[in-house]
Amino acid sequence: MITKIAASAAILGASLLTVDASSAIGAPLRLRGGDRKYHIAGNWKLNPATIDEAKALATAVVKSAKDNKRDMETTVCCPYPFLAAVADICKGSKVSVGAEDVFTEDKGAFTGGVSTSMLKSVGVKYVLVGHSERRHGNIASESNDTINLKVKKVLEAGLLPVLCVGETKTEYEAGKCNEVCAEQLKTNLAGISKDDMEKIVIAYEPVWAIGTGLVATPEIAQSVHAYIRSWLESAYDKATADKIVIQYGGSVAPDNVDKLMSCPDIDGALVGGASLVADKFDKIINFK
Length: 288
Known about the structure:
The protein has 13 helices and eight strands. The chain is of the alpha/beta class. An eight-stranded parallel β-sheet has the order 7-6-5-4-3-2-1-8.
């Protein structure tokens, strides 16, 4: 299956790059435009089981980030019940805190809803928007219009959206990767100004590689990231596109992170399962 997916790279229609990843740690790994820092974010999803486990994991991430000599950002995105405690642990450290979602309203009769003001009040900086598990029915089936509304809501609150885009396995094998990403970007970013665009992180997450153990090769991931950046350039301008951090999310692990991060348009990672294991996330944060 991995061979089949890797062999499909040509359908993306973008040039594939080979990059030398032999640079020393702490040095720039690639040539790129703009002034982008690496950004590694852990998405804990519906984990861990208890507040004590969440505190222990957050404490370990803070230590890993403190030991990191590279100028980069590290974020943990955790479930709502853990946000305040995790934010307290991360306060004053090199680790920022993100929420895994947000509701579209500020207040009212919306049982289970969580507003941007609630998130901001407990120390949240980033908010995941449009994650594939909310787009494709794992927990919700959010439309592009709803995701656009959430992006705007997050920005209005002075928080920073991490907008997730990406194709399913069926769409990938049909050669529709660029088409799907373009449509998501077009609708999810509708009405977003150039100034606000610079506050948004884009996370490319091929749905077929999330939690499956499959991972896009660095060449596949780079080609999609390059396409996304070219879309941003056409929608805004080159200077804006060069400033946007584009993370890769899809079974990122210690054994593939170095090569992924060596690609010129991959500026970080949105990490799922590996972010729940302190030693693994430490290796990802401290990629070579």
